[in-house]
Amino acid sequence: MQDGKCSLLGFEFVVTIVTNDYFFELDICSMNTDKHKYWETIYETKAPEEVSWTEKIPASSLNLINQLQLSKNAAIIDVGGGDSNLVDFLLEAGYNNLTVLDISENALARAKNRLGKKAKKVKWIAADILTYEQLQHFDVWHDRAAFHFLTQPHEVNAYVNKVNTFVTGHLILGTFSVNGPLKCSGLPITQYTPELVKPLFKNAFSLNGCINKDHITPFGTEQNFLFCVFRKSKPDAMH
Ligand SMILES: C[S@@+](CC[C@H](N)C(=O)[O-])C[C@H]1O[C@@H](n2cnc3c(N)ncnc32)[C@H](O)[C@@H]1O
């Protein structure tokens, strides 16, 4: 890092690739190497049916997004979206301003391959959400099973600051509940209740409500999730 910017051999490494096929941004500087490698290996070595979080139809997320009655032009980001099918269903529903951000390029590559030509309708960002500096504003920020990996207060603060700054409308947050697992993909997570999650975002958001949902993993086990929907209540709140 030099002068707050990341550089290698004098070059800054935020690579934006816009081709006929994709808008794809790869922010090498923002990536915490261990975390990045960990997730790259998961997506390199495990098929979707071999990881617990895979959903054929991301029904809870879709229902919650539908309930917001958004315009099809609404800017929606799936943070830690991995190779989730959510983007497929949102495209199918006609949403035309979609972004998927994930720390793993392999995950995004899988989603893009699956979507084929439709992938060019989506903005793909390979970056660590905690340190990525080039975000734009979003009407909806959706996160299923990425936020709960933040186990340190400084990580949670960094995430909350991003949400406060870049979300203009709604935040949909899906985490493991207190009746869910203590680990995900071998990593420790933080379990949440509405009472635990609400104060984290209270400076800029009101809580619309939370629901608990059992996710049936590809192995047939149950994981209890908490999905909470927040609405921006203080438009100018930054932190
Ligand atoms: C349990 S998976 C969930 C994937 C997807 N949201 C779903 O519901 O199928 C967690 C995802 O978060 C991503 N992730 C973890 N930490 C991240 C971070 N700091 N920034 C961006 N993505 C992250 C991982 O690469 C992984 O794809």
Task: Name some characteristics of this structure.
239 residues, alpha/beta, Rossmann fold, nine-stranded mixed beta sheet, two-stranded antiparallel ribbon, 6 helices, 24% helix, 30% strand, binds S-adenosylmethionine
Multimer state:
single chain
Going by helix content, strand content and strand pairing, the class is alpha/beta
Do you know the CATH architecture?
A: 3-Layer(aba) Sandwich
Identify the bound ligands: S-adenosylmethionine
**CATH domain class name:** Alpha Beta
How many beta-strand runs? 13
CATH topology assignment: Rossmann fold
Major beta-sheet overview: 9 strands, mixed
- Overall pLDDT score: 90
pLDDT under 50 segments (min length 5)? Answer: 1-13
Radius of gyration: 17 Å
Q: What's the domain count? A: 1
- Tally of individual helices: 6
Corresponding CATH superfamily: Vaccinia Virus protein VP39
Gap from first CA to last CA? 24 Å
Strand order of the largest sheet: 3-4-7-6-5-8-9-13-12
Helix content: 10-25%
Percentage of residues in DSSP E strands? 25-35%
Principal-axes shape call: globular
> H/E order of the elements?
EEEEHHEHEHEEHEEEHEE
